[in-house]
Design a protein that fits this description.
- By secondary structure, this protein is α/β, with parallel strands linked by helices.
- The protein has two domains: 6-228, P-loop containing nucleotide triphosphate hydrolases (Rossmann fold, 3-Layer(aba) Sandwich); 250-455, Class I glutamine amidotransferase (GATase) domain (Rossmann fold, 3-Layer(aba) Sandwich).
- 29% of the residues lie in helices and 27% in strands.
- It contains 14 helices and 25 strands.
- The chain has helices at 18-31, 47-55, 69-80, 107-114, 130-141, 158-168, 198-201, 204-217, 220-228, 264-272, 306-311, 313-324, 334-338, 442-452; strands spanning 6-11, 36-41, 60-62, 85-93, 118-123, 147-153, 175-180, 190-191, 194-195, 250-254, 259-261, 276-280, 294-297, 299-300, 329-332, 340-344, 350-352, 357-363, 369-377, 389-396, 398-400, 408-415, 418-426, 429-432, 435-436.
- The protein has a ten-stranded mixed sheet with strand order 12-10-13-15-24-23-22-19-20-25. It has a seven-stranded parallel sheet with strand order 3-2-4-1-5-6-7, sandwiched between helices.
- β2, α2 (47-55) and β3 form a beta-alpha-beta unit.
- It is elongated.
- Residues 456-462 and 464-470 have low confidence and may be disordered.
Amino acid sequence: MQTIPTLVIAGTHSGVGKTSVATALMAALARRGRRVQPFKVGPDFIDPTFHTAAAGRPCRNLDGWMLSRATNLEIFARASAGADVSLVEGVMGLFDGRDGGSEAGSTAELAKWLRAPVLLVADGSALARSAAALVLGFETFDPEVRIAGVIFNRVAGPGHFAYLREALEGRCRSVPLGFLRQEPEIALPERHLGLVLAEEVCTTRRLDRMAAWLESGVDVDRLLALAAARPPLETPAVGSDRCPAAVGPRIGVARDRAFSFYYQDNLDLLARCGAELVEFSPMSDARLPPDLDGLYLGGGYPELHAPALAANASLRREIAERARAGTPIYAECGGFMYLTEAIVDAAGREFPMVGLFPTRARMQTVLAALGYAEVEAANDAGYLASGKRARGHEFRYSTIDPMPPEVERVHRVRIGKAERADGYRVRRALGSHVHLHFESCREFAARFVAACAAGGRWAPTECASGERETR
């Protein structure tokens, strides 16, 4: 049974400021010497970068649609070990998830699985007595979700907060725990895929100001008391499940300002399958690190850094040569774009890329795809056995020109009711639009590591606890 203090920070809707509140709370507690373990509900890659910067511990994603309840609890238990408090930032509004008819993928679903109290963040800028109706609606919509407290963001001042507090008292169970003024310098800047990355703006000075902003209007000690009141949670036993191999394959992981979208648990699972992960920069490294057995190219913002990627011709050539020689490569979304012949930006400017896949990636000004995705292997040619399924999501503004039919498609992808071929394979390189969560089907990571190890330096064994089924 796990009893670590836990608090879920949820919003009434998107844009209410919950990421700022969550990041500020993490920073405030870290500055008090607390060991804070951050989590993010949903498939987001960007918010976790702020949490990691504020807490000083890698943020983990929890997701009730991509991953089973047992897998979410295992991730939570493993990451929370040694922490003083776990803080979970929600996704969208508290009850928003994959669709309008169920709680799948919602913050509410995770709060119930974790048996954790919810801190509701509401925009108080245009509210007075109606705040009680809003909060009461959230309290009664699903009585199994325990909303323990409310913070009002964008409040004019103490007088305004007094109206809001008076409205809630006697009508709502939730405790008004304070208010936050609108501070333009606290707001986190955005771009087309969401917030900018933390490494671009999340300085120590900004985090100090965010912590002071939160402490100025919120009862942090009471928040900690609410988190500590969480009932014990029965979680799966967590031990060392690393493969016993002494020497594993070396897998290069693209990591720089162009490529940074990785689930921490994907990387950890590859390591538990025996891989040694070695980071490199497609923007600035002239050569790949030595003795690599495979490459993992995640998503990110290659379109913003296309000139630098194009200018690094020596690395592009080396990756193309390695791919054609049969080096296993897994590339998703932005990484897939990098392996095409060129990235064409929204203004029509073309930048040469690796050229492995005979197509061009084109940026557009409207969303090309957004949603949860289920991948099914059409055959055994990829890193999933035929018929096996894994889950992930798509969020992109890019499209590709028609892929020649001779390029093999090894996946069928379903997003909602739509289905299409995906998972393009050239030799042992696999490119896809989908960001997979490897914990939805651990076999994917195990087979990829085994393919990288096929050169003979390492004898592959079964990864981690074996296969992980989706919901």
